[in-house]
Amino acid sequence: MSNANFLLFNTATKYQFITLNQTIARNYQKLTYPHFQPLLNNLTAEASVIAIGVELEAEPIGLILARYSQFPEEDNKIYGQILSLFVVPSYRCQGIGTELLIRMEGELKKRGCAEIELRYLDNSSTSALKQILTKQNWSIPEATALVCYATTANVENSKQPHLTQYLDRLLTHIPNDYTIFPWRTLTATEREIIEQQIQSDHLVARFNPFLEENKLEPLNSLGLRYQDRVVGWVITHRIAPDTIGYIQMFVYPDTQPLSRSILLLAKAIQLQVEAKQATKGTFRVDVDNKPMVKFVYRRLAPYLDEIRKAWQVSKCLR
After folding, report:
1. In a shared domain, residues 210 and 238
2. Per residue in 18-51, is it b (16+ CB within 10 Å) or e — as a string?
3. Which residue segment(s) compose the domain that 297 sits in?
4. CATH number for the domain harbouring residue 288
5. SS3 33
6. 185 vs 242: CA distance, rounded Å
7. Is the pLDDT confidence value at 282 over 80?
8. φ/ψ of residue 204, rounded to 5
9. I need a labelling partner for 189 at 20 to 30 A (CA). Which of 40, 64, 87, 239 fits?
10. Is the pLDDT of residue 301 over 90?
């Protein structure tokens, strides 16, 4: 563990920047997202995770968390990813975020990283983050996805034409040779076929339905069969006690049009609204999925609480 006292902007305030170990990291849990908190409990060399914190009078006020990986298919190049960067609001605009980034770049460079990336969502601090990244010679931000948030109350109470009625109409038009089924009833043979396709088809691999299966939400994770073949799925995860994340939505291109995907999504939303078990939902749409982006703005936007853009930047370290 390395410690360093820093004097910022010629003030009398001393901030202590610390490369964290597992013991100290426990004090920083609240400074990162819940799904990254377990990483702070496993800060070992084997985990390839780095955490740098900053304290004022032994009180944690900032944290940067990163992970790095080696890619054999790219001549064993090592790449790093900034997972989260947070400074307590009352201590922002004092150079702390910049210093955390600089120190993390140094730590990743020591470990041989050739390049690092950072992804973030639009929020109230985005403007300040962009300024820091520009000054530190990161790439121009590139939009990667729309991240959408909704509540079942907004769906049910919207003054727009009722979404559940619209979804009901969609579901009455499903062709007879298509069947929507609970994903938990997928057979062993069907799973094996899909796993083989994941290995041979990059598109299926991109929408792998078996990722993080321990988080699978049985309420509205669904599959779509065409005759006796599984041709699509919508996979949801319970990401918080009151929130369902719509993680994967896919229908094989040869059984499209887009309406097949929308039918699956419609049924999944309908099941969540009717069950009243989870009042919030969120989903992500890649910006290169133009039909779905159009559908979000044209059909779903009136029922959503918020649509935010996800951005990605990178920086070469050599």
Report:
1. yes
2. bbbeeebbebbeebbeeebbebbeebeeeeebbb
3. 147-310
4. 3.40.630.30
5. coil
6. 24
7. yes
8. -65, -40
9. 239
10. no
